What does this fold into?
Amino acid sequence: MSSLSTTSTHDHASSVHLGYDPEEHPREVSRHYISASDDDLASMLNKVGLSSLQDLFSHLPKPQLFDGDLSLPEELSYKDAAEHLHQISRKTNLHSSFIGDLLPVWKVHPIVEQVSQLRPLSTSYTPYQPERSQGTLVTHWIYQCVLSALTGFEAINTSLYDRSAALFEAICCARRSRKRSGPVLLAQSLFNEDISFLNTHARGTDLEFEMAPLNPSSGRLDYAKIENLLTNQNTNISALVFPQVNALGILEEVDRLVDLARKWSIPSIAVIDPMLLATGGLKPPSEFGSHGADFIAGEAQHLAIPPSFGGPGLGLFGSRYHEEAKKDLRNTPGRYIGKAKDSQDRDCFVMVLSTREQHIRKEKATSNVCSNQAFLATVAGANLLAKGENGLKHGLSQALSSRKQASEWIGQREGVELAFPNSPAFNDLLLSVNQDPDTLIRRARECGIHLGVDVSSRIPQSDKNLIKLSFSDAQGEEEMAALKKFIFDFFPASSCTQDEIETPSHLLRSDPTNLPGFSHDELLNYYEQLANLNISPDDGCYPLGSCTMKYNPLLNDWAAGLAGFAQAHPQAPEEDVQGPLEVLYEIQEWFKSITGLAGVTTQPVAGAQGELVGLKLFQAYHHSRGESHRNIVLIPKSAHGTNFATAATAGYGSGIVYLQANEKGMIDLADFRQKIEEHGTNLCGIMITNPNTSGIFETDFSIIAEEVHQAGGMVYMDGANMNAIAGIVDLSKLGVDAVHNNLHKTWTIPHGGGGPGDAIVAVSEPLVPFLPGRQIRKEEDGFFRSFVPENSIGTFHRNWGNFGHKVRAYSYLLRLGKKGVPRMSSVAVLSSRYLFEVLRFHYPTLPGQAGEIARMHEFILTLSGQDFERLEKAGVPKSQAIPQVGKLFLDFGFHAPTVAFPEVFGLMIEPTESYTKAELDRFAHAVIAIKYLVETFPQVVASAPHFTPIDRVDEVAANRNLCLSEKLSHLPSLPVNRIQPSVLLGLEIEEVKKRILQIHDLSE
Ligand SMILES: Cc1ncc(COP(=O)(O)O)c(C=O)c1O
It folds into this structure.
């Protein structure tokens, strides 16, 4: 990518430097990121028999539509949007920082930036099609192997949302695996934010916690009391959770804790920071006690990206997997990458143990997590490999030497001392000061220093004034000089000195991690090759129904990388992070307008977490009205698996009632009314996807909502399909009480090979007081201040959710403005309706009786009975027919449509608004050619795909003989594209067809 500013094409006079020329990317500069020309739109409208974009929605009930413009600003030009984003980012004051704490900050290798620009890696979908996703799969394999080397754990999950989420999943997994149901013993020395997250999630479920007490005179856990507690409670405790480095920055006695848990057969869960486990660092959790901890959870965002005002995070979760410890793994939340073989015995990688998305087991799912933080794992792997053994070791030693220096300075001053000089610490420094910590922190700020965090309240029984400073390789000479000056200016010299104990060797790593070393060039070249194995929505229609794979603007990524956003620490004083708070405030207000609802939380990080926020809000609302007995959740059978899994996670597992669909694929009103009759008095709420998963708008939605409300229930709308109705339908008029907006679908956030996603949740008036996290208000003088809603249900993220994604959505909305939002949805619906109109004469469609009912943004194709028979004769059983036909899409350079959901025999196609008519026509031509091949040469389906780097993968064998990590001594060797995706996309469809037939010695 060229490194040009916008000067030549955009008359740019300011300091904004994009690092690319937008004019070189036609999709980037098209209005509203819609590639189709006015002629294209007119021609498509003509094909579907309509005369205007508004006509696309004429079948929706009029009273439910917006009757004016959204309260969004007018759209900005590219140049003005860039300038505006730059100006807001400059409102952040970046000081020399020693905050760390909830989110440590370490240097990130430049390779991260370079890998992030490899669009087939950053914008591709979850690797469900391994033949076309080896790029993503290998990056995750590398992440698993490197994290395994650091932690000693054999099975590293490809990611969860953040540390708190990983901890929650670890607790659920430990209890499930060991079949234990008693309370979980939580160390009081964990971060309060993690404990709050756990409490929020546990409410309404059978999960209970007991606190393992802190010893106020050591700043560590009170081990004797824990021992007594376990002895008295005997085996009732279901898991023990403790940190390696606690919230005060002190090291816990990890060996003792793990052995103690083991003595009582209690699974142990260690909270760790993987960065501190490098050579020269702390003891890896696999070596805690006599056998190692059972599970690990931790934050790994700082292994991948800068603080980014708290997110996207990277939740690290690991379990053991070796001869004596195999059982736990099968109970872990899904998604690992395993070694595999393709049908030609080529080495390759595939997702294993997947319990999510298409594989999710509805209410039997053990976790509702679907999108994870995949791309953070991709870049974390690259960052760690680029730093290598020596780089990581050097980083740690720099942190330790900075800490040592600071500790010596403190030792020479009066009024400040080490709080617990006899308790071991590592790279944190806990200071006890003789004045109000807040005042001191404020004074440091005036000197350009973010000194640290006031942690006095973390020891409840103590009256010490405590400030915690964190050291890493991010503080250089300048930062240290500033710190020294501050300490020497503010604290007078002392004649006494203070001794501190050395970190004892039993808490430290004894062997090196032996990570391999690679040159920057070698690694970059390797990741570029990986990108070539994937495909991106940049290059053409990426038709995954329900997933909304649209074009992801470069401007968004540029904005998220601006220093004022990317380098902002979530615990910095609000005065210094007005830029990020302004973005969050605007987004909060804009989504009220987009949904028509009264309140918004920007905290949830994925659709499934948004669903959980919704149900937890319903729970709290009913509880506040003395109606905690309401335990029934109605969910249509065709809903996405996360809806059921979420209801189970929220504590409604036994109260899920399925709703039937009518012959047209919509909710069957008669069945719904019968269920209301039966369950109305116990109704908690209903979850409805609208438009539904067949791409059909539920025209009875408001009737259903009204009847749910009459019964005392609440209405959740799964907003995965907002791309069809944003700016068109007013959700308040539909009767919606809560809805999530997947930023990684409608709002142009890249999918990252499976995540991170994001999900802003909007709610109706009665739920506003219960919103989670913090709200932001704009004060009269323009200052942005945050506050906690009066009856908040708690927290779903340690900070502000995936903030970087909020910047991306904000950047997108600046370019769309009030007119662009409805235009975007309209063109998405038109593109889909156009394709449907072309393809329905070639394929049968689903639902079977839906006939010509107007489809919205997506539709479902299937095969005829004869086709299934032909395929069966050609060796493709009916159960495999649709997935195999999906593989033929890969041969034409496209990704496969969504298969097997919501219809087992369906190919769900969603084109989005990103493509020109010519691109849609080429796609339609390919889909028609695929049907021809099925009908005429069914034998070619059995061996599809033909041009990808690998053939069909034996997923069953990969799941049976799990290999989840190995010692990385070299980079995994890579298969080669038999035909490059860029070449495939340039070939005539007839030519591709011919080449497929040639492989089989066939001709037309
Ligand atoms: C209809 C629907 N609901 C919920 C989800 C879950 O969203 P997420 O993956 O963001 O958790 C999806 C994801 O594809 C979906 O398509």
About this structure: The longest strand covers residues 683-689. Residues 374-411 form the longest helix (38 residues). The pocket of pyridoxal-5'-phosphate is lined by residues 370-371, 546-547, 606-608, 640, 642, 689, 693, 718, 720, 742, 757, 759 (CB under 6 Å). The chain has a mean pLDDT of 95.
